[in-house]
Design brief:
The complex is a heterodimer.
Chain A lengths: L4 H4 L2 H16 L3 H18 L3 H26 L6 E5 L2 E4 H27 L2 H10 L4 H30 L8 H32 L20 H24 L1
Helix pairs in contact in A: 2-5, 2-9, 3-4, 3-5, 4-5, 6-7, 7-8
Chain B lengths: L2 H28 L9 H10 L1 H18 L7 H16 L6 H25 L9 H10 L4 H12 L1 H17 L2 H4 L5 H6 L1
Helix pairs in contact in B: 1-2, 1-3, 2-3, 2-4, 2-8, 3-4, 4-5, 5-7, 5-8, 6-7
Classes of the chains: A mainly alpha, B mainly alpha.
């Protein structure tokens, strides 16, 4: 797999980017979110060749919220600002649109930055980089294990539901019947997973899971020459921006 | 088992709790049930391992869901609160009796309302992204303010599934083999019942 420039960057550098974008977004209005962060993330996605999944995911994440929030803000807009559009009983004023843009800006930043991050970063590498700054390996275990377990449990649940159906549990019909099917579908799933736990705990303990020593890693990730510059520039730029915002707010 | 191993069991339970949160919601969907069950795992971990692990399960669920749907991350605070409350109730032994389970349901329902509604209004401007937003917009159109519309919607949609979730956990706790349940931090409380 050919790796784009952004993908080759060290995970923590990219995480710093996400963090900085969020901080900047919290102190800015809609223009930063929509006119700076979103296009910037899109640009990075294009550079790395992940533009299509990026666009689909961001759109999917935001469309419901944006549509509803715009509708709400327009409904609630009782200001006297200029009318932008009028049709029958629908009156759209400038203030309503501005409110909606400001409200959705932080969600847009959240969605674009994080989706970009996970499109260009392997979760495993992210965990390794966190461990390198002394995050507990138990946290990375929990996260990686969950990501593996969710599809596994989902398959298990389908098997259990079919098994229960073979034993006469109705999964279709009126609401009461379907409700009765819920616990027999979920119960065995949970109980069998918990029963497996003990064995898993022993296996991990044998491998020194809770021993308080630094763990080595099979996979190695390296910093590119640009990581340091990018990392510190991000911090500097964010600090400068916040300083500027405070300055303009005070005077 | 030593204390260290009990913690390992608790840590291993977290991924299961998170997976249950995710899959439980899917099962409810497959069965076309009108409930939004996504905290069973959090409550279960809280009941078995205490408020700390319950809270972590809640947080981790939203962070992991956030990988594919970052727009849900702000709701993490609700999940965390539920996990903590469940753990505290379990420590008081309320998951062992029906009366206790009812008290727990009410408390969890209460904390959900207290944490979720502010997030819905402040971060999402009143939207929850699910069908309940239609109810909210209807209430808004009838002239109610944003806060009261959101709270009213939440009272209607978010009440039933919290009670159902607690009782499902209650039933599961009774079904786990005693041998296994003893290995969790709060396990011994359930052996007495």
């Amino acid at each position: 797999m050919k790796k784009g420039f952004i993908t080759k960057l060290y995970p923590l550098t990219k995480a710093m980017f996400v963090g900085c974008m969020l901080i900047i977004g919290l102190v800015s209005d809609w223009r930063v979110g929509y006119l700076v962060v979103l296009p910037l993330c899109l640009l990075f996605a294009i550079i790395d060749g992940v533009a299509k999944p990026f666009i689909i995911k961001v759109f999917g994440a935001l469309v419901v919220f944006v549509v509803f929030i715009f509708a709400f803000k327009i409904f609630l807009d009782k200001s006297a600002s200029p009318i932008v559009f009028q049709y029958a009983f629908i009156t759209i004023r400038q203030q309503g649109i501005l409110d909606a843009l400001n409200q959705t800006s932080i969600l847009t930043i959240l969605a674009s930055a994080i989706i970009l991050f996970f499109e260009t970063t392997d979760v495993e590498e992210f965990m390794i980089s966190l461990q390198q700054i002394n995050m507990s390996h138990m946290i990375s275990y929990v996260i990686l294990s969950t990501l593996q377990m969710i599809p596994e449990m989902f398959k298990k649940s389908k098997i259990i539901m079919q098994a229960q159906q073979a034993r006469g549990i109705e999964t279709e019909g009126n609401l009461w019947l379907r409700t009765k099917a819920f616990f027999p579908s979920l119960g065995p799933l949970i109980i069998s997973s918990i029963a497996d736990l003990e064995e898993r705990a022993i296996t991990l303990e044998v491998r020194g899971f809770s021993a308080d020593v630094k763990k080595t890693s099979y996979k190695e990730i390296n910093k590119t020459p640009y990581d340091r510059t990018i990392f510190w520039s991000l911090i500097a730029a964010t600090a400068a921006y916040i300083g500027w915002r405070i300055f303009t707010w005070l005077f | 088992m030593s204390k260290k191993n009990i913690s390992t069991m608790a840590i291993l339970l977290i991924p299961i709790g998170i997976a249950i949160n995710v899959v439980g919601g899917q099962i409810a969907l497959v069965l076309k049930l009108p409930i939004f069950i996504d905290v069973i795992g959090t409550i279960l971990v809280g009941a078995l391992c205490g408020p700390f692990f319950g809270g972590i399960t809640g947080l981790a669920t939203n962070l992991i869901l956030g990988i594919t749907a970052p727009t849900w991350i702000p709701y993490a605070i609700v999940n965390i609160a539920i996990g903590v409350v469940a753990g505290l109730c379990a420590k008081k032994g309320w998951f062992s009796t029906i009366k206790g389970a009812i008290i727990t349901s009410v408390l969890i329902w209460l904390i959900t309302q207290i944490t979720a509604n502010p997030v819905t209004v402040l971060v999402y401007g009143g939207i929850t992204g699910s069908g309940s937003s239609f109810i909210t917009s209807f209430l808004l159109a009838t002239g109610q303010g944003l806060w009261s519309s959101v709270i009213s919607t939440a009272l209607i949609t978010e009440t039933v599934d919290k009670f159902v979730s607690v009782f499902i956990v209650f039933a599961i706790l009774k079904s786990i083999p005693k041998r296994t349940i003893a290995k969790f931090p709060l396990g011994e409380d359930y052996l007495k019942a």
